[in-house]
Specification:
Layout (H helix, E strand, L loop, with lengths): L3 E7 L3 H11 L4 E8 L6 H14 L7 E3 L14 H4 L22 H11 L4 E5 L4 H9 L7 E7 L14 H5 L1 H8 L6 E4 L1 H6 L4 H8 L3 H21 L7 H10 L5 E5 L1 E3 L10 E3 L10 E5 L3 H12 L10
Parallel strand pairs: 1-2, 1-4, 2-3, 4-5, 5-6, 6-10
Antiparallel strand pairs: 7-10, 8-9
Helix pairs in contact: 1-2, 1-10, 1-11, 1-12, 4-5, 5-7, 9-10
Amino acid sequence: MPARPLIIDTDPGVDDAVALVLALRSPEVDVRAVVAAFGNVGPERTLDNAGRILALAGREDVPLGAGAEQPLVHRRALRAGHVHGDDGLGGRAAHLPEPVAPHPGSGIALMARVLEETREPVTIASIGPLTDTALLLAAHPGLAERIERIVVMGGAIGGGNITGAAEFNVHADPEAAHRVLTQDRVPVALVPLETTLGCAAGPEWIAALTGAGPVCAELAAMIAPYYGYYRDRYGRDAVALHDAIALLECVAPGSLAATPIPLGVDTGFGPARGATVPYRAPDATTPPVDVLSAPDVPAVLDAVLARLAGQASPCSIA
Ligand code: RIB
Ligand code: CA
């Protein structure tokens, strides 16, 4: 079976780094472009980080684009340096190889070009703010039919992380998230915070990652300070690698279980800004979003580790 084309829209970010390596090492997908936008840290840093991760993985062949530098409508200052480190990669960015140079032009233009040039339907993994994905759909409506589905790491049905109500990626640009989650042109699958927190990896998993070769050892070094944040914040000896869980679904569809739920996003300026809630507007034709959950957490974590270690084969299942 030919590898399925994939575009990754990201804001590296420690868990983004793990997700990128997982995708780059999964034979079932062909990563056609990586676009780095503002999010965990500023856009200059996320672009540099994405370029370094591509070089670390030996995938200088993958085109890199500069994504959105700010949200669609309202600027926001909230970053997540306290989680991912000021450099966005747990203090390890300077230890990585020199970054791959970004392609000239915008990340949106790169995404549109990949869609125009690819015969097979393309999956888009949106693992940062949804700004680029929303802009792509708005600027190139005719390309929606070229998109297989959009897999989003984001949202929280049961309570947020950056605020009590909102998950970071949706809170970063609620208007963009509203555009993507309520459009009816492209199927959307959402991997929410409760699913990714439920798939947190413990010390044995990290030890196995550390021993799985030099690239995985570097990922484990990036994760170390991020792990400490999660242990302190959630009181569990485990770390949530949110984006890697979403990318597992991209490389091995069906790894997670889907429940169709129509969602609304709070784009107001109250305490619930950025909240994702089960909701169907009275006059809406909004199709439901496939909200993904993990009924078998050990199998999910085993599959993520196997792919990072380069052990996955096209016939393997998650
Ligand atoms: O809330 C978790 C999400 O926000 C992840 O994508 C993480 O990288 C940050 O972007
Ligand atoms: Ca991210």
